[in-house]
Design goal:
single chain; about 350 residues; alpha+beta
């Protein structure tokens, strides 16, 4: 009765009971017939008899698609991404199709990469922004690209070999805890997706916690000297500002960099600042520039963490804002945005150069 391992075992058992089959030969024949019917149902193309009396159908014209392998016979003809199959009888067509789908089932396996791509595709439809999806695709390369893990059957993973992979990668790449957390998140989501699609019954990550791998991470601690700018460095920086203003007094990104040195604001926040954000002796930060790396479009959205922040206007900041306003008036490109020139608002990428 091992043939019950094919899908829908309970339905087959019911079929046998209902038809009163007791002889093992009858049972075997009926099981094979049902298996054959199931395989033929997978075939997406019609089967027909031509005017020459021969029987025809199609098979897909791909050797590999979405990580799954397909096998073909030598006498196919290509047409519109399909291969035309010809046989003398309909039964011969059915025999060929059964062999085709049986072989397909044997060679097909769900690899880690295939499961990862499946999770990413589902995520792209339901949740994530374009930039998040680009990040997922970009992060895949240093973590998994070109490694053995890509081609391993998802069913062969267990808690122990998953732990070994993460520990090894943490040491090899000298991952910081934050990067390790990202790695673990990708693996956890991949196995979860594979479980949802019934490619595995249990996730090998179910009993693992990200924090248990932090002991293998590299923690990079900056010294006070690395975190701060000395007075001499400040003098050199402002000397460069003066030189830039003298050469290009209308070059707004230079003023934005000086503003960043006085406030510590992110360039995305600086790019989104408007004159209306200067009020009551404060600079109000409540917006941030966003960039869609897929569509290559900029827009203004909420600030990071969606929290509004305030900073007192110092004499240096007020003096800088007055210089910016005077420059914009002089060169005729006044705008609702503080850091704008004749071409419009200065983007964060320009300020960062």
């Amino acid at each position: 009765m091992n043939n019950l391992q094919y899908g829908q075992g309970s339905e087959r058992l019911r079929f046998i009971i209902d038809n009163g089959m007791k002889d093992i030969g009858d049972v075997q024949n009926s099981m094979e017939t049902m298996k054959r019917e199931e395989l033929l149902k997978k075939h997406p193309y019609k089967t027909w008899q031509g005017k020459d009396g021969k029987w025809y159908t199609y098979l897909p014209d791909e050797l590999k698609k979405d990580g799954k392998w397909y096998t073909y016979l030598p006498d196919e003809l290509k047409k519109d991404g399909r291969r035309l199959i010809k046989r003398t009888t309909e039964e011969c067509i059915h025999i060929m199709l059964v062999k085709y789908y049986e072989k397909q089932e044997k060679v097909q396996k769900v690899t880690f990469k295939y499961a990862y791509d499946g999770w990413l595709e589902a995520h792209s439809i339901s949740f994530s922004s374009d930039n998040t999806l680009v990040k997922y695709e970009t992060d895949y390369k240093p973590f998994f690209k070109g490694r053995d893990i890509e081609s391993i059957d998802i069913k062969l993973f267990n808690e122990e070999n998953v732990k070994r992979f993460i520990v090894s990668l943490c040491k090899e790449k000298q991952l910081a805890p934050k990067a390790c957390k990202t790695l673990c998140g990708y693996m956890r989501n991949t196995f979860k997706s594979a479980k949802i699609h019934k490619d595995i019954t249990e996730s090998p990550f179910d009993n693992l916690e990200t924090k248990q791998f932090y002991q293998y991470c590299t923690r990079k601690v900056k010294t006070p000297e690395q975190r701060t700018i000395s007075n001499n460095e400040f003098k050199m920086l402002y000397a460069q500002f003066q030189l830039d203003y003298h050469k290009h007094p209308d070059y707004i990104p230079a003023y934005a960099v000086e503003f960043a040195s006085l406030t510590g604001f992110r360039v995305e926040e600086i790019s989104a600042l408007m004159w209306e954000n200067i009020k009551n002796g404060m600079t109000v930060v409540n917006k941030s520039e966003k960039y869609n790396r897929v569509k290559k479009e900029y827009w203004i959205g909420s600030a990071k963490n969606r929290k509004e922040r305030y900073m007192l206007l110092t004499d240096e900041i007020v003096e800088l804002l007055m210089r910016i306003k005077n420059v914009q008036r002089k060169y005729g490109f006044e705008s609702e945005y503080i850091f704008a020139n004749r071409n419009g608002r200065a983007h964060a990428s320009v300020i960062s150069v």
